[in-house]
Design a protein that fits this description.
2 domains; Arc Repressor Mutant, subunit A; two-stranded antiparallel sheet; elongated; 5 helices; mainly alpha; 101 residues
């Protein structure tokens, strides 16, 4: 019965909550807290370089970091999937945006 009241109270606050069960919202919040993003030194180095030089290319990252292009691509793909790294614009004129952790 308490879940019904929680949903009712939250739905008066924000109407979107009427369609989302409270268990789902709690599960999403807890999973976000428990699944903290773990970055190693290479990931942090990539993010640091992209923060300082947002227009840097992957080939330039390869020469600065000293890892293979496939390693840089794989790590950047994972960072994009985690929502830490975003490509803004196209391949030629775009830039990298690093989100706060």
């Amino acid at each position: 019965m308490s879940r019904l009241w929680q949903t009712l109270i939250l739905s008066h606050w924000k109407p979107i909550f009427i369609h989302l069960p409270i268990e789902f919202m709690l599960m999403m919040i807890l999973s976000a807290l428990n699944d903290g993003v773990k970055l190693d030194t290479q990931d942090r180095l990539i993010l640091q370089l992209l923060t300082k030089h947002p227009h840097i290319t992957q080939n330039e990252l390869v020469s600065k970091i000293g890892k293979s292009k496939s390693t840089i691509e794989r790590r950047m793909r994972r960072l994009k999937q985690q929502g830490i790294l975003i490509r803004v614009g196209g391949d030629k004129t775009g830039y990298w945006q690093v989100n706060k952790l």
